[in-house]
Amino acid sequence: MKAKLITIAVIFALLLIFILQNQNPTSVRFLFFGGQTSLALTLFMTFLAGLIVGVILMLFKKK
Fold first, then answer.
1. What is the spatial distance between Cα 40 and Cα 19, in angstroms, rounded to a whole number?
2. Which residue, 36, 52, 38, 40, is CA-closest to 16?
3. Which of 10, 42, 51, 59 gets the most CB atoms within 10 Å of its CB?
4. Cα(52)–Cα(48) distance, rounded to whole angstroms?
5. Could you tell me the residue ranges of all domains in the chain?
6. How many helices (H) and strands (E) does the chain have?
7. What pTM was estimated for this model as a whole?
8. pLDDT tier at 63 (50, 70, 90 boundaries)?
9. What φ, ψ does residue 32 adopt, rounded to 5°?
């Protein structure tokens, strides 16, 4: 359990470093929506979306 938490913390730290180094504005388009936001925010939102999908899939797998 402790190794799992350390691995998660290291991955999160690396993700945070990557996001902080990529602050350039970028154009984002998804289906009918579009706009301009920082690359860091885009990457963070993508990470959160993947995390949420992963948690939902784990919950369905347990049933």
1. 5
2. 40
3. 42
4. 6
5. 2-62
6. 2, 2
7. 0.59
8. low
9. -100, 0
